[in-house]
Amino acid sequence: MKFIIRAVIAISLIAMFTACSDDEKVTEPTITEAGSITVQDQMISQNILIVKSITVEKDAWVVIHADKNGGPDVPEIISQPVFVKAGTSNDIMVPLTSNAQMLGTNNQLWVMLHTDDGQLGSYEFDGSNGLDAPLEYTTGGIILKAITVTPTTITVSAQSVTNSVTLSVNAATDGWIVIHNSNSDGSIITQSIIGKAAVKAGLNQNIVVQLDNNITIGSGKKIYPMVHIDNEPKGVYNFPGVDAPEVFGFDEFGIPKVIVTSFNTI
After folding, report:
1. Which of 18, 87, 98, 175 is the most buried (most CB within 10 A)?
2. What fold is seen in the domain 153-264?
3. How far is residue 121's CA from residue 118's CA, in Å, rounded to a whole number?
4. Is 4 strand, coil or helix?
């Protein structure tokens, strides 16, 4: 009889994670509790994903998994585990971590709920220890949502630069488009900018960025537009300071990737 019960549990777990690859079998039970996630595809700022709402009967965790073969890559997570209290929570900010190096190649992510049943207030799920297991809907099935995240983008073409640069920005949040000049070898001069303009969240088309002191740049020069966020006080460019460069994902060293592009003057 015990053998039959164990066999039934094993079959149930395989069915719940069929989207995961064969080498990622999750061997522990899920916890059946009422719960729900409301989250949408979104353009993210500063590598932070926003979950519109979460409802759970007991205290829980929300985490983000990378996508693998059309399902969540478990047990590894690519976010900080964020604690949510029993009840309904709105606009939950879930910061991604340096494990999110796939962004830019695969932008599908999985938002998942876990119980908090081990050491309270400490996320302990590792796929085998029986702690903080994935939550299930009361009707069955793990509580998770697949979403696609996208970055802020800059669109600019090669152009003659006489006192200004014209470009477009699709921004995740209010911010700044700033212009960096280049060194003689074409590398970016990061210490200073030669022009800036405010941008609003959403699509900002054909922005004309006036250059400082009526700068005119000759042909064959590489110019670097970069996006910064606009923190308090709003409408005042503060960098170095709180108006940090906008980022999306991480490089192989775990450093956030700055939203910057380049073009050559003609």
Report:
1. 175
2. Immunoglobulin-like (2.60.40)
3. 8
4. helix
Encoded tokens for 49: 């994903």
Domain ranges of the chain: 28-150, 153-264
Q: How far apart are CA 251 and CA 63, in angstroms?
A: 21
Fold classification of 28-150 (topology level):
Immunoglobulin-like (2.60.40)
Amino acid in the structure at residue 42 = Q
The C-alpha R_g of the chain, in whole angstroms, comes to: 23
Question: What contacts 25, CB < 8 A, 6 or more positions away?
Answer: 13, 14, 17
pTM: 0.84
User: What are the Cα distances from residue 90, in Å, to 85, 115, 124, 135?
Assistant: 11, 18, 24, 19
Q: Of 53, 75, 65, which Cα lies nearest the Cα of 133? A: 75
Q: Rounded to an integer, what distance in angstroms lies between the CA atom of residue 51 and that of residue 33?
A: 19
CA of residue 192 relative to chain centroid, distance: 28
What is the C-alpha to C-alpha distance for residues 248 and 215, in angstroms, rounded to an integer?
31
| Secondary structure of residue 9 in the 3-state scheme | helix
Q: Both ends of the chain: CA-CA distance in Å?
A: 80
Tens digit of each residue's pLDDT (9 = 90 or more) over 7-63: 333 334 334 444 444 444 444 455 656 789 999 999 999 999 999 999 999 999 999
Q: What is the DSSP letter of 214?
A: G
Please list, in sequence order, all residues whose beta carbon lies within 8 angstroms of the beta carbon of residue 187, skipping any fewer than 6 positions away: none
Task: Determine the Cα–Cα distance for residues 121 and 103; give it in Å rounded to an integer.
Answer: 29
For the stretch 140-170, pLDDT in tens is 899 999 999 999 999 999 999 989 999 999 9
